[in-house]
Fold this sequence. Notes:
- The chain is an all-alpha fold.
- It has one domain (3-124).
- The chain has five helices and no strands.
- It has helices at residues 3-24, 29-40, 44-68, 76-97, 100-124.
- The longest helix is centred in the middle third of the chain and has 25 residues, at 44-68.
- The model has no long low-confidence stretch (mean pLDDT 89).
Amino acid sequence: MSELVRSSLAVLSGFLVGLVSGTMGIGGGILLVPLMVLGFGFSQHLAQGTSLAAIIPTALAGALAHDRDGNVDRRAIPWLAAGGIPGVLAGSLVAVHLPRTLLVRLFGVLLLYSAYRIWATRSARKPEK
């Protein structure tokens, strides 16, 4: 596959992941990591690191759009960041030292558990009118 085709597919993939993530309010990594591993042949470690780096500008753009519509609790940001920043640093240190196979399985378990929780939560609610 030529570099131009590969780059074009990466841009298209980023657009589609951004569109779905922005529409559904999910972290893009849930889609981007499997796409990079399965579609582009990245290692799990490389896909996770690349996804985290790519999410910085995309999360900022999404947050600004939601903030414009009043969908951001600005008081919660510093509190979430106070735990989130050390948490992501610790998690990243753990991830880079885990064997690839274990990291792939842990990511898969997270995806399955997330899917189950979404399905179970949506199924238990009364239909919206």
